[in-house]
Backbone:
């Protein structure tokens, strides 16, 4: 009977240890699930922020392209006006030379 009682006590102790281990594993599983949910939320947030940043970058590239085209057009206009100014200045020089008899 004593051996049976000792065996029962040992089994009860082992059962208690297994029960505690299961509780610890359940808690660990819950904590892991919470971390996973938190990580997934972080990933969703970062993905949304990345998409927004990519959209802003694309818009900025379009604006840069538009402004570069405008700069190119203005540079062409400036060159044209400089050439027109030189032609007028040369014509005035010739006219002045004719008037002064040089």
Residues:
């Amino acid at each position: 009977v004593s051996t049976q009682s000792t065996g029962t006590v040992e089994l009860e102790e082992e059962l208690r240890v297994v029960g505690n281990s299961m509780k610890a594993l359940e808690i660990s599983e819950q904590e892991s699930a919470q971390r996973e949910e938190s990580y997934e939320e972080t990933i969703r947030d970062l993905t949304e922020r990345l998409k927004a940043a990519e959209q802003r970058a694309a818009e900025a590239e379009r604006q840069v392209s538009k402004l570069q085209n405008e700069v190119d057009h203005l540079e062409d206009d400036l060159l044209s006006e400089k050439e027109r100014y030189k032609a007028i200045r040369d014509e005035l020089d010739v006219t002045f030379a004719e008037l002064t008899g040089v």
